[in-house]
Amino acid sequence: MKFFLDTADLNEIEEAASWGALAGVTTNPSLYAKIGGKLEDFHAHMKRICEIVGPDCPVSAESVAMTRDEIVRDGLELAEIAPNIVVKIPTMVEGLAATRALADQGVRVNMTLCFSVPQALLAARAGARYISPFIGRFDDISEDGLDQVESIVGAIGNYDFTANTVRGEQIEIIAASVRSANHVTQCALMGADIATVPFGVLKKMVQHPLTDRGLESFMKDWKKVLNA
Ligand code: E4P
Predict the structure, then answer these.
(1) Residue 108 C-alpha to ligand 1 middle, in angstroms?
(2) Residue 4 CA: which ligand 1 atom is closest?
(3) What is the pLDDT along the chain (228 residues), one digit of tens a residue?
(4) 228 Cα to the center of ligand 1, angstroms
(5) How far, in Å, is the centroid of ligand 1 from the Cα of 82?
(6) Which H, E and C letters describe the chain, residue by residue?
(7) pTM surpassing 0.90?
(8) Ligand 1 lining (C-beta closer than 6 Å)
(9) Can 47 be counted among the known catalytic residues?
């Protein structure tokens, strides 16, 4: 499983990248608004994220356009920012059509706001490189988001979509709207390719009380060695 950071915060991205396990970044309009982002700075901000994580790490930048022509135009502009930009497009009719048009022009797309197997299958046929099923938002309405991810991983894995994707790359499923380290565990057991996690969840993933306790006792015992 690869880990993406779900944020537009440059400090969080720099810190997470320094840990050596970051494989990409996903952003969305809400995350950009949360850091006080301004419209005129959006492209420069995405470019900075691409520079921080490096050319091998995909960075999802979301289109806020609503018609297929506008999404395609927006997507082509976003793709110009850096080679590692992935255009993030909502799973809706206009989004599917735009994804097909962008994939045909060599632009990689992450289809987002995906909540069902039929949506994921359509995204795959439309040429999406990444598909992002959301977990937490199901949990928010008392339904099981993990069940949906498991079904989507299984259904997509049943078929070969490489004829549909840019450069014949394999589709990867990004478990999104992740709210806990346990979500990550469950998604890894299901075989989701990627988990995109908020920085708070990434920090929790490193922690374990027995690690802290073990470290404390090792340090205490090492002092005995130093004083022996
Ligand atoms: C995915 O790419 C989205 O940016 C994100 O995971 C949404 O998470 P949320 O439901 O916590 O807002």
Answers:
(1) 19
(2) 2
(3) 999 999 999 999 999 999 999 999 999 999 999 999 999 999 999 999 999 999 999 999 999 999 999 999 999 999 999 999 999 999 999 999 999 999 999 999 999 999 999 999 999 999 999 999 999 999 999 999 999 999 999 999 999 999 999 999 999 999 999 999 999 999 999 999 999 999 999 999 999 999 999 999 999 999 999 999
(4) 54
(5) 22
(6) CEEEEECCCHHHHHHHHHCCCEEEEECCHHHHHHCCCCHHHHHHHHHHHHHHHCCCCCEEEECCCCCHHHHHHHHHHHHCCCCCEEEEEECCHHHHHHHHHHHHCCCCEEEEEECCHHHHHHHHHCCCCEEEEECHHHHHCCCCHHHHHHHHHHHHHCCCCCCCCHHHCCCEEEEECCCCHHHHHHHHHHCCCEEEECHHHHHHHHCCHHHHHHHHHHHHHHHHHHHC
(7) yes
(8) 6, 26, 28, 112, 132, 134, 136-137, 176-177, 196
(9) no
Ligand 1 atom index nearest CA of 31? 4
Give 171's contacts (C-beta < 8 A, 6+ positions apart): 124, 128, 129, 130, 131, 156, 161, 165
Q: Which ligand 1 atom lies nearest to the CA of residue 28?
A: 4
> Residue 35 has which token pair?
């850091």
